[in-house]
Design a protein that fits this description.
Largest sheet: 4 strands, mixed
CATH superfamily of the largest domain: Enolpyruvate transferase domain
Structural class: alpha+beta
Strand order of the largest sheet: 21-22-1-23
Radius of gyration: 21 Å
Strand content: 25-35%
Helix content: 25-40%
Bound molecules: shikimate-3-phosphate
Number of strands: 23
């Protein structure tokens, strides 16, 4: 299903019923990557087949791995071990996907062949020194453009050595890139995190039989370990659920349950933030699929109030801020966020993209280098035309704004929704959003 370029969402409506969201994007990427370097056949159930994960699948096919996928999200990967990867015949196009380019940089740093990775306009603006610097300390040969942006050119390195590396920014992509390089380095590789970030790589490496030490914010892996194929089930993506959770929380009369959704504690910041704003959110049916916890998440709409968002919740809600900002804009009082400068380095500058869109809809907003202040109004939004700057999460967040708008909300340039949520329009329509193609 292709996503329309523009969406028009009629004002009003309520979110109701039961829904499922597509498989978690971060976990799906990692399942394809680890299955591709493991020995044996890995089966992945519930894999997200959005454009970003397809980019990862295409990259491993270009590296010689046989991968088959079915429309229902079952993916089969015939792994023959890391040493069997072969040099790609052409540049690897990582599209819009930061996770693909950064994790693959780590993985390919010690592959012993050359590879070039590039991407779309948005990806070519994103900072890569955060991965190339630690990888070079390990002995990798990687060049980027003068500004530290893609394309990344990986030259064959004869030998990687383990390092102990303190992350300057809390980033699961950087942590994962270093750990993946560490699998093929001599000795121990240790990553020290300033704050906990999503730990899907650590959990999944263990599921593939890798021994890993995790203690007091330090993750250590010993090089030379082989991965053994396994079967994985990917839970629903809490980052995709977040639009519906925020949309239901901010509209009185909404009552919605997202079933089978991932609730890894490194990802649930949005639930904690919405609860602090007064949202009524209940988890039920909590269980584990393999190494990842999941649950059904139920929300009842009510009147939210503004808060000062605690900085320690930033990493675990990093992708959910577009949805949270929309909820904050129709809450009573002011919401303030600081310590979230990383939002400026996502698929768009999400502080500016969200501030500009909220202003179009009549919300008063002030931005700073690392945050935003949103003056909420229980009157909600006017309507208007939003430029989502090609950013999937900005587009989906503003679709939810229509629930509390007085006029239609038009979202321009939103084909990127397909990177993480290919059937967003259908799911949103079923849940109660009145949306159509422009
Ligand atoms: C991701 C980590 C986060 C997140 C991104 C996915 C991952 O990025 O924003 O959408 O899969 O590891 P950073 O590592 O840049 O924080």
């Amino acid at each position: 299903m292709t996503t329309p370029e523009h969406l028009i969402v009629e004002p009003g409506g309520r979110l109701r019923g039961l829904l499922r969201v597509p498989g978690d994007k971060s976990i799906s990427h990692r399942a394809v990557m680890l299955g591709s370097i493991a020995h044996g056949i890995t089966e992945v159930n519930g894999c997200l087949l959005g454009a970003d994960v397809r980019v990862t699948i295409a990259a491993f096919r270009a590296l010689g791995v046989q991968i088959t996928e079915q429309a229902d999200g079952r993916v089969t990967i015939v792994g023959r071990g890391f040493a069997q990867l072969t040099a790609p015949a052409a540049q690897l196009d990582m599209g819009n996907s930061g996770t693909s380019i950064r994790l693959l940089a780590g993985l390919l740093a010690g592959a012993g062949f050359a590879a070039v990775m590039t991407g779309d306009e948005s990806l070519r603006r994103r900072p890569m020194r955060r991965v190339t610097e630690p990888l070079e300390l390990m002995g990798a040969c990687i060049s980027s453009d003068d500004d530290g942006r893609p394309p990344l050119r990986i030259m064959p390195a004869s030998h990687l050595c383990g390092i102990r590396y303190r992350l300057p920014v809390a980033s699961a992509q950087v942590k994962s890139a270093i750990l993946l390089a560490g699998l093929h380095a001599e000795g121990h590789t240790c990553v020290v995190e300033p704050m906990p970030t999503r730990d899907h790589t650590e959990r999944m490496l263990r599921a593939f039989g890798v021994e890993l030490e995790v203690e007091s914010g330090e993750i250590t892996v010993e090089g030379g370990q082989e991965l053994a194929a396994t079967t994985l089930t990917v839970p629903g993506d809490i980052s995709s659920a977040a639009f519906f959770l925020a949309g239901a929380a901010m509209e009185d009369g909404s009552e919605l349950t997202v079933q089978d959704c991932g609730i890894n504690p490194t990802r649930t910041g949005a639930i904690h933030i919405l609860r602090r704003m007064g949202a009524d959110i209940v988890l039920s049916n909590e269980r584990c699929t393999g190494s990842e916890p999941l649950a059904d998440i139920s929300v009842r709409g009510c009147r939210l109030h503004g808060i000062d968002i605690p900085s320690d919740l930033v990493p675990s809600a990093i992708d959910e801020f577009p949805a949270l900002f929309v909820a904050a804009a129709c809450a009573e009082g002011v919401t303030r966020l600081v310590g979230a400068g990383e939002l400026r380095h996502k698929e768009s500058d999400r502080i500016e993209a969200m501030a500009a869109g909220l202003r179009v809809l009549g919300t008063k907003v002030a931005t700073s280098t690392d945050g935003i202040e949103i003056i909420g109004s229980v009157d909600g939004f006017s309507g208007g035309s939003i430029d989502c700057r090609g950013d999937h999460r900005v587009a989906m967040a503003f679709a939810m704004a229509a629930l509390r708008a007085r006029e239609p909300v038009e979202i321009i340039d939103c084909a990127a929704i397909g990177t993480s949520f290919p059937d967003f329009s259908e799911t949103a329509r079923r849940a109660g959003l009145n949306l159509s193609r422009a």
